Amino acid sequence: MREAVEQLLLPAECLLCRTLLPFRDAARLVCDVCRYRWRPVRPPWCPRCGQPEPLFGRCRVCADWPATFILARSAVWLDAGARAAVHALKYGGLPRIAHDLAAAIAALDPPGRAGAWLVPIPLGPRRLRHRGYNQSERLARALGRRWHRPVVELLVRSRDTAAQTTLTPEARLANVAGAFETRNFETRNAEGGTRNRRPDDRSAFRLPTSAFQRPLVLVDDVFTTGSTLAEAARALERAGAGTVSAVTFGRAVVPDFI
Fold first, then answer.
1. Cα–Cα distance measured from residue 157 to residue 117, given in angstroms and rounded to the nearest whole number
2. Of 81, 82, 75, whose CA–CA distance to 42 is shortest?
3. By mean pLDDT, which of 55-59, 118-122, 184-188 is the weakest?
4. Is pTM, for the whole model, over 0.85?
5. Residue-wise DSSP of 77-130
6. Tens of pLDDT along 117-129?
7. Domains in the chain and their CATH numbers?
8. Alpha helices by DSSP H, the chain
């Protein structure tokens, strides 16, 4: 309903360059020219985390990732128009721009994509109340429609964390350590019935049996140091997930890593 009202009230123009959009593109917020200006992240890169080379020895970005977190890829570099698009999604109250961002992510091809479940990175309760929606969930659902894959909200934030924007890589790791847990899914007991675990038993329960048979793809807006994605993958690993990868729209340049 909110998106329909926006389309009725807002002019059909590109959010980034203000060019008027043709009627057939009235539902979009970014024109083709601005999309073309987004710089794709291309190899050579670390085969696991996608950090651009040159690399000397063991990659410092993904060296401490959990074993099940096998790959992360980003669609475009977070500069100029791409940064403005992410800002509109996260802070501008324009969740429908997720469709434009998901169009760029859709070109990525993580392992097992054809049978994967998409798992958005959750927001903490305070930030979710303030923003009114989770930008990663909106991205995941827009991407799921393009890939024809389900979105499963397997993760929750166990606590609110500080904004990562101004933190050093070491502070980012400390900030998100232990910040994610898996949801309390209904599990089947030995007698064939079903039961729910205790509400406080969040980090110990296991995922539904079907999750073990499918790759899980984390979806987020931006990759900076990978600490948030790695911690989310660690929570899924504790719950029994076998293979976890990640896709994001933007990738920030971190000078200390390149």
1. 19
2. 75
3. 184-188
4. no
5. ESSHHHHHHHHHHHTSS-GGGHHHHHHHHTT---TTGGGPEEEEPPPPHHHHHH
6. 999 999 988 888 8
7. 1-37 (no CATH), 41-257 (3.40.50)
8. 2-9, 32-37, 80-90, 98-105, 125-131, 135-147, 169-176, 209-212, 227-238
